[in-house]
DNA sequence: TGTACATCAGTGAACGCGCGTTCACTGATGTAC
DNA sequence: TGTACATCAGTGAACGCGCGTTCACTGATGTAC
């Protein structure tokens, strides 16, 4: 993850896999240790106040040593972002893929979203890094974009399979053409073969809404806005994703 | 808001309104100046990194002088929280009350939520303070609770009026009894006379979902998660609130 | 297998900085008589 | 209206602290011959 001056000696296309040296393995391990320590710090300090020196202390090295691994605090943040997005993405992909009956789109929908919430509850600091307030003065670079899309890609895959099987959504209210507003999302889905060209705009709108609602629900839970209104956040979450499935016209497996 | 050692000389129940002294007026004005400066800082620093010294500098006073107004950084944060919640609440109440046809529940629904988004877009720093990641190490005290409820109280009022007029919601999926999960919200609404005792659980669930979806949508917009998917965030927002109104069974005015 | 040089990880001191908070002070404002 | 004392806002210096980053260094690891 984002080494500094020392790019892994790029294996030329046809070269045999070189034996990894002691140094290389140590480097990987310590990089991981730094990231782990930083993630733990994130649960109690917020990304904006994340202290490189504190992380170094936790790992047991002097603060300047961290600079052998990350060129700056911002680069460490970027690595954390990529790591967290990838971990979340992998968890969701795995949980969704574990549903053996691929026609059970509601089951897949539930599995995917439950994995998102499960990860978020288990890693609130990382969740806040990804979906909380942005870090002031820090702009996430390009490398974070692709990992950030993994969840929505899984979700779009489920929705596509469901519509191919002929699901029905509620009629959209109003009469305007909403396609231009969500054109970006349509383009994204089509580029990756996640949606047929003739997919109705309403499907895209409802998928975006579902996506936003789920993350909104998790944020409200973790950030304390459901206290007093909802007693069991896990039950409430299931209530929400079931209604979202219905609103998208996903139907229970036969 | 939250003076330190100098509580306003509590007007005893029946005493006539005393003439305000020069000092009292200066105090109020400078308190406001400090809060304003802090809010501006919040747009570029995040609440966790909000610097008392920077705020003092902006106001043109020495850092220790701020302690005449707020006993600590945390107290300043609390005052900001209350101020922002109250400002947002007032904006929403006013926008909703401005809809003259009180039977037009969809119009009132739209007016209220558009006011929320309008305020959020105009005050992104304050919005992040209220609805972004919580400030690590800071626990919002009791005084912030009531101001925080003003938006949902307005929304519940609209929904109540709509159901009194006989609106229809989609059938809930599943068959369990969801009432215990949202018992807190039901109690809240009933205590304030915002919902009849026989209001269906599904109505409460859908109202909570709408509430969460709207704030989720605004957070996604302001925190950068809609970039690339949605081209015009204001249009998209209207698309969302219209669908939420439909999901709640709110119907256009006759 | 052995030697000579290059690379690299980690150290420790130092830089300049900004932070929250305390404290004794001064001068202006308010109050009691 | 005038005087004497009390209250209060704001000052400036100081406290102890932690931060990100740089730099010359040492000793271990890797590589070429």
Supply the number of helical segments of chain A: 10
Indicate the multimeric state. Answer: homodimer
The greatest interface between two protein chains, and residues involved on each side, is: A-B, 53 and 53 residues
Q: Which spans of chain A of ≥5 residues are poorly predicted at pLDDT below 50?
A: 1-17
The whole-number mean of residue pLDDT values of chain A reads 90
Report on the biggest sheet of chain A: none
| Helix-strand category of chain A | mainly alpha
In total, the number of strands of chain A is 0
Strand content of chain A: under 5%
Helix content of chain A: 55-70%
Query: Gap between N and C termini of chain A, in Å?
Result: 45 Å
Q: How large, in whole angstroms, is the Cα Rg of chain A?
A: 21 Å
Helix/strand order of chain A: HHHHHHHHHH
Based on Cα principal axes, name the global outline of chain A.
elongated
Describe this structure in words.
The structure is a homodimer of 254-residue chains. In chain A, α1 (22-45) crosses α5, α3 crosses α5 (124-131) and α9 (201-222) packs antiparallel against α10 (233-247). Chain A has ten helices and no strands. Chain A is mainly alpha-helical and 254 residues long. Chain A has helices spanning 22-45, 52-59, 73-97, 105-122, 124-131, 145-148, 150-164, 183-191, 201-222, 233-247. Chains A and B meet through α8, α9 and α10 of A and α8, α9 and α10 of B. Chain A binds a DNA duplex (33 and 33 nucleotides) through α1 and α2.
Fold blueprint:
2 copies of one chain form a homodimer.
Chain A: H1 22-45, H2 52-59, H3 73-97, H4 105-122, H5 124-131, H6 145-148, H7 150-164, H8 183-191, H9 201-222, H10 233-247
Helix pairs in contact in A: 1-2, 1-5, 3-4, 3-5, 4-5, 4-7, 4-10, 9-10
The first copy, chain A, binds a DNA duplex (33 and 33 nucleotides) through residues 5-6, 21-23, 26-27, 30, 51-54, 61-65, 67-69, 72-73.
């Amino acid at each position: 993850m984002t080494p500094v001056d020392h790019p892994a000696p790029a294996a030329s296309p046809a070269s045999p896999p070189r034996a990894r040296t002691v140094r290389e393995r140590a480097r990987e391990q310590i990089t991981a240790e730094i990231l782990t320590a930083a993630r733990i710090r994130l649960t109690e300090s917020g990304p904006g106040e994340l202290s490189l020196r504190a992380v170094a202390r936790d790992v047991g090295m002097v603060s300047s040593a961290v600079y052998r691994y990350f060129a700056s605090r911002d680069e460490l943040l970027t690595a954390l972002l990529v790591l967290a997005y990838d971990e979340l993405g992998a968890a969701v992909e795995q949980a969704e893929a574990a549903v053996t009956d691929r026609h059970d789109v509601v089951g897949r929908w539930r599995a995917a979203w439950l994995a998102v919430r499960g990860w978020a509850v288990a890693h609130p600091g990382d969740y806040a890094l990804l979906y909380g307030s942005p870090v002031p003065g820090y702009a996430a670079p390009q490398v974070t974009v692709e990992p950030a899309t993994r969840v929505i890609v899984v979700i779009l895959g489920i929705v596509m399979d469901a519509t191919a099987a002929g699901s029905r959504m509620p009629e959209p209210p109003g009469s305007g053409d909403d396609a231009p507003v969500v054109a970006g999302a349509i383009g994204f889905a089509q580029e990756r073969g996640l949606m047929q060209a003739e997919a109705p705009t309403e499907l895209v709108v409802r998928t975006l809404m579902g996506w936003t609602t789920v993350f909104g629900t998790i944020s409200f839970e973790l950030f304390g806005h459901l206290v007093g209104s909802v007693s069991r956040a896990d039950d409430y979450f299931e209530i929400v994703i079931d209604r979202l499935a219905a609103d998208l016209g996903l139907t229970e497996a036969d």
